[in-house]
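Posting this for the archive.
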Amino acid sequence: MKRIFISVMGIMIAVSGMAQETTTTFKPSGSPIVTVFTDFRVQSTDGKTNTAFEISRAYLGYAYKFSPYFSAKAVMDVTDKNNGYQGSAYTAYIKNAYGEYSRNGFTVDFGLIGTNTFNLQESLWGKRYLLKSFQDLNGYASSADLGLGIKYQIIPELSVDAQVVNGEGYKSVQSDSAVKVSAGITYQPIKKLYMRVYGDYQKKQEAQTTFNAMIAYKDDKFTLGGEYNLQTGHNKVKDHNLSGLSFWGTYNPCKKFAVFARYDNLTSKKINGATDGWNSTDGNLYAAGLEILPAKGIAISPNVQISDPSKSGSKTSTSYLVSFKYSL
């Protein structure tokens, strides 16, 4: 990581010279970040039912813009480790703590940054408060990590991005010299149509590689998207390969109401002639529901989520939820 720090210092020295052109009319300002996910759920598995109220996650932080080109952001992630079933066991992590330089389509982030693995998919899915996007849900990568990120908007329809990060995520401290290198290309051949290809590589004793291809359409009324994911050497373990598909859609008949559905399929490699894949969470996931937006910053969603594992002897689990999101 020493080389990364040296490179970043060089970039920051170079761009600080350009920042001297800041206009005198700019006024530095900041704003608080408060987002809370909570829900009531009834989960049924093999005839057994669990009922729980939970605050599953809270993001608390602050964003500040020093100049037209320099800004910073710090966010704390408070999460319920037991999903509301075994009493409160909240743990707090620093999720984001980074500085950013952005000008003329060129952006540099350095620190504890948001990763480029699935941030676009999460934005297009738009319902993180009730269900994570596919790669996040299945542990392909962390949503934030310590390192350097660069993005360049080549033309309005095409952008490229790259990152060098620890690869351990924001909940773990770097414990070895291995880093993860990633790159992605996002293309919009027509307005509101998104196409993206992404890949990353990390190696310790064993290598882990990730590939993602995504296409989605989003306008004021409809959202329809799909993605394919492949990861070899999951968690840098030989033959621990994962592949999966995710499809989602939303229909908004009006600004304050939506209907949505999603389907995921996760498959892992069968090792040494095993009947099942090595991963215990292989199988299908179905989700559907309504989304109500009664006021700015508030979302309410009655929804159902069905987990149908493919492993022999595993039981289907059905969860009925009323999910809430509050944000400033």
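The helical segments are 2-18, 119-125, 134-137. The chain has three helices and 16 strands.
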